[in-house]
Design a protein that fits this description.
This protein is of the alpha+beta class. The chain is built from 10 helices and 11 strands.
């Protein structure tokens, strides 16, 4: 004790008060014969502390991930979060319990009907250079077909997850939508070739070809397009009277853009190019026919 007093130039009472504060903070202080004071062997002070806002963000992420379609991702996220929670201070753990009673998240997606738990097998196959067997059902087929593939990488596009892989039966690279893979299993065979990265292969097979698109949107409703427009190459906009003119440099398939814009058909209009405007109008007419609203069809 006298050593601490001398080193820090303070009183014995102050030393005891500081030690008491450390104990309350969760630091294991040991007192032994001869007035020796030490910290429990192996204890380390966590180098970082989470703010209340960061802790709340983790709670929200936990609620959202609890309903994730892929068990591999959900399971490992829960393990990682458990390690993070263990580093929380006592008051943060208390606050988290309080937060949990005030926050709920309902996942409306049917997990069993959406995404097979295939990501773990596919990623392991890609890392270990191991051929994977899948049963895959194309949109045009009623039955799944068995394929032996060499998985290269996963990517997310137009609201779906895809696998880029070398298909041994087609002897070429193919994209497989994950929700159409009915089953997956590793094989004992290794890759037949060395593959470039998924991005490099996509560039070689589909060099970027963009389309300049201009649309007109009712100004009061333009905010509805804000979040998704970035997916279609939004570049800039101008406000003209009660309308917003939006410009896109779209690299996705033009039909994908048209079908996205159909959600906002009552507030938008395609200005250019003409080909896209005609496609948009054709889809509108087809929708009217499908709904049997024939009195609105042109004579």
């Amino acid at each position: 004790m006298s050593f601490l007093q001398e080193k820090f130039g303070t009183s014995k009472r102050t030393i005891y008060r500081d030690l008491n504060s450390l104990e309350h903070a969760g630091v294991p202080i040991l007192f032994s014969a001869g007035s020796e004071i030490s910290i429990m062997e192996g204890y380390r002070i966590n180098p970082s502390r989470f703010t209340q806002e960061e802790a709340l963000s983790l709670l929200i992420a936990e609620k959202m991930m609890a309903g994730h379609e892929t068990q591999f991702i959900q399971r490992n996220f829960e393990k990682a979060l458990a390690k993070i929670r263990s580093s929380f201070q006592f008051y943060q753990k208390t606050n988290m319990l309080d937060f949990e009673q005030k926050f709920s998240f309902k996942n409306s997606r049917n997990k069993s009907a959406y995404l097979p738990d295939v990501i773990e097998v596919l990623l392991n196959g890609s890392v270990k250079k191991q051929v994977v067997s899948i049963n895959y059902k194309k949109s045009s087929e009623t039955r799944a077909e068995k394929r032996n593939i060499e998985p290269v990488g996963l990517f997310y596009e137009s609201e779906f997850w895809y696998l880029l892989a070398w298909c041994q039966s087609r002897n070429d690279y193919r994209n497989f939508r994950l929700d159409r893979i009915e089953s997956v299993s590793p094989t004992m065979h290794t890759f037949s070739r060395v593959h470039l990265s998924a991005d490099e292969i996509k560039q070689l097979k589909n060099p970027p070809a963009s389309m300049k698109i201009t649309i007109k949107v009712v100004q009061k409703k333009a905010h509805f397009l804000f979040w998704e427009r970035q997916n279609f190459g939004f570049t800039n906009e101008e406000i003209e009277k009660d309308e917003v003119i939006m410009h896109f440099d779209c690299e996705t398939h033009p039909t994908s853009f048209v079908r996205w814009l159909m959600k906002f058909a009552d507030i938008t209009e395609i200005i250019a190019p003409d080909s896209l405007r005609h496609e948009f109008n054709a889809l509108l007419l087809a929708s009217l026919k499908k709904a049997k609203i024939t009195h609105l069809l042109p004579k």
